[in-house]
Design goal:
By secondary structure, the chain is an alpha/beta fold. 31% of the residues lie in helices and 21% in strands. Helix 8 packs parallel to helix 11. It starts with a strand and ends in a 23-residue tail after the last strand.
């Protein structure tokens, strides 16, 4: 007799089958046709996916709460079927030392409704890296090879030294790959250009390709495990395809292109920027053939007032944690992507690449984190109906398939119109370097 049995769920194993899922102490303990439980949850034939892991979010808490905080960001995550997030270090203050790491951890523990991990940042702080790793950092980065939100970047010698440190710890480096020198030169050349697509030309495809090539060179030289985040170009994909390097892509680089600048203006500004349609098609091919390992939202909200500015002055970044899975599940239903690839990219692969134990699969021994979808129920996306503080989305008017219910460790967070998420209920998922017995870690 299980504590909980999820009945009539449709889940993908070799095929999509209807099954019962037994849950005890928050873990999946058995999957069978029929099971008995003290409590029952009838999934009514809904498609059950493993809880989505969004491995790249910027929840803005720590000085930029007007854009987002852990409470609103995690609520938005739940409405998108996301049960775990990984927060990036370019907050205010940035997560560059043990003190800042501990401060962010305290805030996230107090506010997050979903499980969470925290990445450590890399700048001129090489002596701080091991302390943050011992405190439980999941990975290092995104490490900025060119300036982005917050103005942080590393020079070549610091980057190499950091990779050597990261290699020594057995950690993973997540790389934001752009060429700072080329970006600066293009910004100077285009200073008087006010064309609607100027920002894409200020950070051209060659910028990403140059940086990916350099990151791969350093991977060979140092042996560090590297992950290239938010790839956006065909050349980057070709470089990565031949190497023992992992990577992720965002929905906005798959579903938007330079064609959208005219409609979205600065609301389409992100780093790396929108690309030509030929790059978008190359990304889709790399998603389908497995070259791209992970789908991540790069949820980076800014206020409407900030994004209403001129494209050169507006901050870079778009919200996306709530729309990522709904948008891509719609692509599955439309035949553009297989269900297996979606599950791999949003659950199994991020858990494998970043060493997240017990997550990413509907399988015995794994956390009972699941999102349930009616694949026939599409919804038009409107920014004012989403739950991020941003209140807008670059996908206004797109269709998505949103979860009917979301469960974490066997407890409902969302069911229909009822929301059960609780402030502070999310657990801190420690990285592999966590050292037990450290003060202030409970």
């Amino acid at each position: 007799m299980h504590e909980l049995v999820v009945e009539n769920a449709r889940a993908l194993f070799e095929d999509v089958v209807t099954c019962s899922i037994g849950v005890d102490e928050g873990k999946i303990t058995r999957i069978a046709k029929i099971l008995k439980g003290e409590r029952r949850y009838d999934a009514h034939g809904l498609l059950a996916l493993p809880g989505i892991i969004d491995s790249h979010v910027h929840f803005r808490d720590m000085g930029q709460e007007e854009k987002e905080d852990w409470l609103t960001g995690s609520k938005s995550a739940i409405y998108g079927g996301v049960t775990m997030v990984v927060d990036m270090p370019n907050t205010d203050p940035p997560t560059f030392d043990e003190e800042a790491f501990q401060a962010k951890l305290a805030v996230a523990r107090n506010r997050s409704m979903v499980d969470f991990a925290i990445n450590a940042g890399v700048s001129s702080n090489l002596k701080e890296l091991s302390a943050m790793w011992r405190r439980g950092a999941l990975a290092f980065g995104e490490i900025f090879m060119a300036k982005s939100t917050g103005g942080y970047s590393v020079d070549g010698s610091t980057f190499k030294a950091a990779l050597m440190e990261i290699k020594g710890m057995g950690a993973t480096a997540s790389i934001h790959a752009e060429d700072e020198e080329l970006n600066a030169r293009m910004a100077k050349e285009l200073i008087n250009d006010n064309g609607e697509d100027v920002y894409s030309r200020m950070r051209p495809p060659e910028s990403e390709a140059n940086a990916v090539q350099e990151a791969i060179r350093l991977e060979r030289e140092t042996g560090a495990a590297i992950h290239i985040t938010h790839v956006s170009t065909s050349r980057a994909v070709e470089l990565i395809r031949r190497e023992p390097v992992t990577c992720d892509v965002t929905p906005h680089h798959l579903l938007l292109s330079m064609h959208h600048w005219g409609k979205l203006k600065a609301y389409a500004k992100m780093n790396p920027p929108l690309r030509p349609k030929r790059d978008v098609e190359a990304l889709w091919e790399a998603v389908r053939d497995g070259t791209i390992d992970v789908l991540a939202s790069d949820h980076a909200p800014h206020t409407k007032d900030e994004k209403a500015a001129d494209v050169k002055a507006a901050p870079a970044g778009v919200p996306g944690v709530e729309t990522m899975a709904p948008l891509m599940l719609k692509e599955v239903v439309d035949g553009r992507l297989s269900l297996q690839r979606l599950i791999d990219m949003t659950s199994a692969n991020p858990a494998r690449i970043f060493g997240i134990p017990g997550k990413g699969r509907i399988e015995e021994g794994y956390d009972a984190d699941m999102a349930f979808f009616d694949i026939g129920a599409r919804r038009v996306i409107h920014g004012h109906e989403l739950h991020s503080k941003a209140g807008w989305t670059p996908f206004e008017g797109f269709e998505g398939i949103f979860p009917v219910a979301v469960m974490q460790r066997g407890e409902l967070l969302l069911e229909g119109k009822e929301f059960y998420g609780r402030r502070g209920a999310g657990r801190f998922i420690r990285g592999k370097g966590y050292t037990r017995g450290l003060q202030n870690i409970k």
